[in-house]
Specification:
By secondary structure, this protein is mainly alpha-helical. It is built from 6 helices and no strands.
């Protein structure tokens, strides 16, 4: 192995380590925000749920910052990679409700379908809104 190849591998490893640290900072930021807002909502008479409040604060921050900072982008990308794992506990928790689900399958199917489509449309609209905003990109 040549010296140039060794240096390239070492630089690649350093870049990956730096990206992992940035992603960890992004995940820590998201988790800290959620924990702080949960305590705020629990301790004060706030009528907005903490996840909605977090989305509002993040959206305002992104508009003010004119984009998503790199460390938050990397943290969010990690969360999206592990996102399917978050659905396993709710699926297991529905097992005792199997009879109710079997008897009300049509209502459940309609509610889940409409809410999924609404969520996807809202996400697409938000993406287009943010994508067309002038300013720097992270």
């Amino acid at each position: 192995m040549t010296t140039a190849t060794k240096q390239t591998k070492q630089q690649d490893g350093q870049r990956r380590f730096a990206a992992a640290l940035e992603g960890g900072a992004g995940m820590g930021f998201f988790l800290l925000l959620v924990v702080l807002l949960d305590h705020l909502v629990a301790g004060w008479p706030v009528i907005v749920p903490s996840p909605v409040l977090a989305m509002m604060l993040l959206t305002g921050f992104f508009f003010w910052h004119q984009g998503v900072p790199r460390f938050l982008d990397l943290g969010a990308r990690f969360f999206f990679r592990v996102f399917p794992l978050l659905f396993i506990p709710p699926l297991v928790a529905t097992w005792p409700l199997a009879d109710l689900i079997a008897s009300q399958w049509l209502v459940l199917l309609l509610v889940v379908s409409v809410s999924t489509i609404t969520g996807m449309l809202a996400a697409a609209w938000t993406y287009r809104l943010v994508k067309t905003c002038p300013g720097k990109r992270a």
